[in-house]
Design goal:
Chain lengths: 576, 535
């Protein structure tokens, strides 16, 4: 006991002896953005940002306050520069919902930039996917060389980085991954407040999976600690997007409220949060605002540059004490004032769709249609296609047609597949003329797999991961993105270069392709029958066809034959 | 095979084949025919069952109650259709959007080779309207289709009404795992083909159509609905598709399961099922049903809009509501429940329908004949050709057996050359090809120069080719094989018989009905025919 008392001042002095800049100043911000979509659905985007004010790359961090230790250790151990992981169920319908803030492909997606110090990237990648598989209770361990690619231009680091060597990047998707509560629970555990208080208390699994679209993701990247960028912090950004179908839930009414969507209301912010806010999108202009009424009304309106335009948002700051003064809870709701039917929805500036064409089980065509609905501006798109090896792409059939004319890509990178080893990778930079539809099509042949390579449900088909479209869209007005720390979280995920254009990444729908499938219902019978037919039928027919038959008049013969012939001669019959 | 390796037994066998050839052929023909007729006898057939596990074990609980809404939609649709003089595209679009579907249209134009029977026009123009119900939390990889043809006249108004009310009911449910496409296609088969070609982005039939925007992944199953009255007395299921293709038997079984559950009166080929299967009238009834199916399948013509889906490996059936003079009528609620139930079961599918049979005959709705049972019927008929071929072969291979003295004559005519055999066969094929292509290709030229209509031109050209064809092989054969050669015609017949046997076998595998109809008519002629008269 005495020893402890002796040691205590020593420990304290160690703490106090740290230089002042090493003082842990980690911060946590939480934010919920509610966006009424054009189709009448509501998108709720949660963003939780934990900042770790130590550099995981160079120093050994053993003390974690808000930042989850499990991720911090993974980053140090595998020398990760950036990590982006998303689990999604459903598909963001860009055409009817408008451009997404942050889309993710259906299933699971993981892309990681490793640090330059990594010698064997593939080994680290393999181990990392297995670790993440355990952390997030997902089948990420199915990521192997057959679905991993190294894109050259589509995925650039989002955080502070001077690495541009794309060999340090690995990208993989698992379009078949089913996302459910077992993935949500470990994700919620990474939050400093868990799901007990704060905005995360709204995340109840039962309601979240009663929706049209559900996407949760984890983004880890190094960021500047302050404006001068003198030191590096690590940012963990957890986002969760849900789209609620108000038509199904609300019996045809489009009104919504927090309670209707999540079956609970916000009662208090997370006490560890430095910032806790709810934003409600109120559109571009005043005309739209008049169509609905938001309760309780908020005095605070903010303008945020999103998608190249200033959008107005109503802001509820949960850290303001008077917000909970009148009522103990906050239930943000929206009522439409009527005039809800507004004809066909206006298509967004940029969207895409993909499909397989052709019939039969031998060949097919993968088509991607990319729409540029901008009235007068052309912009480039970076197109990434990953196709598994069992679809043999015929690269010479690649055609890119815009308005009936051939559109020549200005950059093209193609890595052919190797059977059972790696997938096809096709990356192209294509210029999209204004007001145009560009069709990219490429033919493929379906391979016949070995019979043990088929999954248990071979007739379901095989998934092809979505293609990725990274695009710089010209802004409507020149808007400057604010400081990383000061602006709302939802506007600062992608680093913006200048105000004249904004970055967006769209994913197309995954494809389901049937491969020629043997009849697995009676393999034993079939194998037995085939073997029998081949052995008996083929063998003897071949024998008959190739042999010539002659009646052999054998004079020699045995003793019995000689005797028989003598008897026959006596009887006057022809000898044998 | 030991029989064949032993020269003595081999000789005995060949003797049997040559001596008893005619009786063997007749017996074989009779067995084949008898086997076929026996297929309709109920104790010989199998009771149908749902093989697909994901559709079988659980019954869904249907909750469709919006029959009145269906009828009001139908009346509204009829009114708009009358005023629009065709498919009321704008109204359909508006209504579907109001229901909450993603609505798209596809317009198409098809030039017909012959003028339309009713309206005497050469060009068919139309617009298909379809709305996609997006399944929540699914990435549009799979879908189901409910289609209703919006044909000429005032047919199918009730079917469109039911489609719309089903769509609005389905929209409010959250259990969908596959997108559902609600399609109203104009001009029956032409519109359906245009839509399918647009959806799969292929061009098989030269239909010009607008770019299709909305898709919903791989279509797993489809159902086409035809109802032209407010109440129905029975439901008829149509299975025969293009070129005799059939949907997976599970589609029929699924329909049968819901017929039984909702106690609907269900028919196939317009015929009800009888309970007295063991009596002679019961057997005749089944035989009649099966023969109707054989005729329809053998024609190769799709008997409903569903038939065109089958090319794209989409299992589909057509359901036809029949309103006859029976007393008990079913309203839209029962029909809607049946379709709802079928869609919910199809929604449960985890794989494409593949478990059950693709090749079958249906002597009644609940009984089927599988490919393993019906193939021997045609096998016996084809056996005749093989017996005849063996007979010829044996005769050809030992011409010296005629003179018993053992001094084999030097072959008088010699074996017929390759050219003499190949020429008639090539000419036959050329005639066939010209019959297939020439009438359609040259009808335009014919109508320009002669005072005939398009359809007459085709018939006349076909006749002309036949007439020309009559002269050809006769003359060439004489020239090539020389006069009086038995070996010549025997070799030619041997090859033709084998060729015919192989072709009939192939056709029978693809389309049993067509193969059987051809075999039962051609084979006796082919077996008997041989050159006679002055040489």
């Amino acid at each position: 006991m005495a020893a402890v008392w002796l040691l205590l001042p020593l420990l304290l002095s160690v703490q106090a002896g740290d230089p002042s800049e090493r003082r842990p100043a980690d911060s946590f911000r939480e934010e919920l953005l509610l966006t009424p979509l054009r189709s009448g659905d509501v998108a709720a985007t949660f963003q939780f940002r934990t900042r770790l004010d130590s550099d995981l790359r160079h120093q050994r961090v053993s003390h974690y306050r808000l930042f989850p230790k499990v991720l911090g250790q993974v980053i140090s151990k595998y020398s990760i520069q950036e990590l982006h992981l998303s689990f999604t169920q459903g598909f963001w319908r860009t055409r009817s919902w408008g451009p997404p803030l942050l889309q993710a492909p259906a299933g699971a997606e993981l892309w990681v930039w490793f640090q330059e110090s990594v010698k064997d990237v593939d080994k680290n990648w393999k181990e990392l996917t297995n670790i993440l598989s355990g952390i997030f209770c997902a089948s990420l361990n199915f990521i192997d060389s057959t679905n991993t690619v190294t894109p050259t231009a589509s995925f650039k680091p989002l955080g502070l980085a001077n690495v541009t060597d794309h060999h340090l990047l690995r990208y993989a998707t698992l379009p078949r991954e089913i996302v459910c509560t077992e993935n949500l629970t470990p994700w919620k555990k990474l939050l400093p407040c868990g799901s007990k208080v704060g905005l995360a208390s709204l995340l109840e699994a039962e309601r979240l999976y009663y929706s049209s679209y559900h996407s949760q993701s984890v983004h880890i990247r190094p960021v500047c600690r302050d404006a001068s960028c003198s030191a590096v912090s690590w940012e963990l950004r957890q986002t969760l997007t849900v789209v609620f179908d108000m038509y199904t839930n609300g019996l045809g009414k489009r009104d919504w409220s927090l309670f209707k969507m999540f079956a609970r209301t916000v009662t208090e912010p997370c006490p560890l949060a430095a910032q806790s806010k709810i934003y409600v999108d109120s559109g571009y202009d005043q005309k739209e605002i008049d169509m609905f009424e938001v309760t309780p009304s908020s005095a605070l309106d903010v303008k945020v540059p999103v998608h190249g335009d200033q959008r107005e948002y109503m802001l509820y700051d949960l850290l303001e004490p008077e917000l909970f003064n009148t009522s103990r809870n906050l239930n943000v709701g929206l009522k439409w004032k009527g005039g809800s039917d507004s004809g066909p929805p206006q298509p967004p500036v940029f969207h895409a769709e993909r499909y397989v064409s052709g019939y039969g089980l031998q060949t097919g065509v993968i088509n991607t249609m990319i729409y540029n609905n901008h009235p007068y501006r052309a912009f480039p798109v970076m197109f990434l296609e990953t196709v598994p090896w069992y679809l043999r792409l015929y690269i010479h059939t690649l055609t890119i047609m815009t308005k009936g004319k051939d559109n020549k890509p200005s950059y093209i990178h193609y890595m052919p597949a190797k059977d059972r080893q790696r997938p096809h990778l096709l990356e192209m930079l294509i210029q999209l003329p204004p007001n145009s539809i560009t069709k990219i099509s490429i033919e493929f042949e379906r391979a016949l797999l070995k019979w043990t390579e088929y999954p248990p449900d071979p007739n379901h088909g095989f998934y092809i991961s979505p293609s990725v479209l990274s695009v710089l869209i010209p802004s409507v007005r020149n808007v400057k993105t604010d400081e990383l720390e000061a602006s709302p979280l939802f506007s600062t995920l992608f680093p913006s270069s200048d105000g004249s254009s904004y970055f967006m990444r769209l994913y197309t729908e995954p494809l389901l392709v049937n491969l020629p499938t043997p009849d697995f219902s009676m393999p034993y019978n079939v194998i037995c029958l085939t073997c029998t037919v081949v052995a008996v039928g083929y063998g003897s027919f071949y024998n008959l066809l190739t042999r010539t038959f002659q009646v052999e008049d054998n004079k020699k013969g045995g003793l019995a034959k000689i005797i028989a012939n003598i008897i026959r001669r006596l009887r006057g019959v022809a000898p044998l | 095979m030991g029989i064949l390796s032993d020269p003595n037994r081999r000789q005995a066998l060949s003797r049997v084949i040559t001596r008893l050839n005619a009786p063997l052929c007749i017996i074989s023909y009779l067995i084949g025919l008898g086997w076929f007729l026996g297929l309709a006898f109920q104790p010989f057939t199998l009771r149908s069952y749902i093989s697909e596990n994901s559709m079988g074990s659980t019954m869904v609980d249907e909750k469709f109650i919006y029959g009145e809404r269906a009828l009001s939609y139908a009346r509204e649709f009829a009114a708009h259709r009358k005023s629009a003089g065709g498919s009321p595209v704008a109204w359909l679009e508006r209504t579907m959007r109001g229901i909450g579907l993603e609505v798209y249209t596809q317009s198409f134009v098809r030039n017909l080779p012959f003028p339309d029977e009713s309206t005497e026009r050469y060009m068919v123009k139309g617009t298909n309207v379809y709305g996609i119900l997006r399944a929540p939390r699914a990435a549009s990889t799979e879908s189901l289709v409910l289609s209703v043809p919006c044909s000429e006249g005032q047919n199918n108004n009730q079917a469109v009404g039911l489609l719309l009310s089903l769509a609005s009911y389905f929209r409010g449910q959250i259990y969908w795992a596959k997108d559902i496409i609600f399609l109203v296609n104009e001009h029956d088969l032409i519109g359906m083909e245009a839509w399918l070609e647009g959806y799969h982005d292929v061009n098989v039939t030269d239909i010009k159509s607008s770019v299709m925007m909305g898709r919903a992944g791989a279509i797993q199953a489809a159902m086409s609905l035809e109802i032209s009255s407010d109440v129905i007395t029975s439901f008829d299921v149509v299975v025969e598709g293009l070129n005799g293709q059939l949907p997976n038997l599970d589609m029929v079984n699924l329909f049968l399961a819901f017929c039984q559950k909702n106690q609907l009166l269900c028919t196939i080929q317009g015929k009800l099922q009888r309970n007295d299967f063991d009596t002679f009238p019961g057997y005749l009834h089944n035989l009649h049903t099966m023969l109707l199916m054989v005729l329809k399948q053998g024609s190769g013509r799709p008997q409903g809009d569903h038939g065109l889906f089958l090319r794209y490996h989409i299992e589909a059936i057509t359901l036809r509501g029949i309103n006859s003079f029976r007393q008990y009528k079913y309203d839209m609620v029962t029909i809607g429940e049946t379709i709802e139930g079928m869609f919910r079961k199809l929604n449960n599918l985890s794989e494409r329908l593949h478990q059950s049979y693709f090749f079958y005959l249906l002597p009644s709705l609940s009984r089927f004949v599988s490919i393993g049972i019906y193939m021997p019927a045609i096998g016996f008929i084809i056996l005749i050709l093989i017996l005849r071929a063996l007979d010829l072969w044996i005769k050809l291979s030992r011409p010296e057996t005629a003179n018993e003295d053992g001094v084999a004559e030097s072959e008088p005519e010699g074996r017929p050359g390759f050219l003499s055999l190949a020429t008639p066969i090539v000419i036959c094929h050329a005639t066939g090809l010209s019959l297939y292509y020439l009438p359609v290709l040259s009808q335009e030229m014919a109508t320009d120069h002669f005072p005939v209509s398009e359809s007459e031109a085709v018939v006349l050209i076909a006749i002309a080719i036949y007439v020309a064809g009559l002269a050809l092989p006769h003359n060439t054969h004489r020239v090539l094989t020389g006069v009086g050669s038995d070996q010549g015609w025997m070799t030619l017949k041997l090859i033709s018989l084998l060729y015919l046997a192989v072709q009939l076998g192939c056709i029978a595998v693809i389309n049993f009905s067509l193969g059987f109809i051809l075999a039962i008519t051609i084979v006796p002629v082919a077996a008997v025919v041989q050159p006679v008269g002055p040489k």
